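Show me a record, fold above all:
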Amino acid sequence: MKSSTLLVILVLQAVLVMGIFAAVAKENAVGESKAIDINPGQLKCCTNCNFSFSGLYTCDDVVAKKCDPVCKKCVAVQTKAGKKFKCTDTFLGMCGPKC
């Protein structure tokens, strides 16, 4: 087999593999934000703040009464002391002051 034929086959294989990786990456949204619903508001206060370098944060505070009015997704959490509530929103910016 000539070296030029071998080179063409190797180039075609490389293009095929790159195309497969590109299709998989597009389907899995690699490197992109996967439809994170960001709440544009800010909580009045947050003691257990999980801040990421991307500028997004979530608050892991569990409260006895309803969540902050800014919260869009308030879920009930079962604790030893009974039913409490937690805001599961993702916020953009800095965490609020501690409660």
Remarks:
- The mean pLDDT is 79.
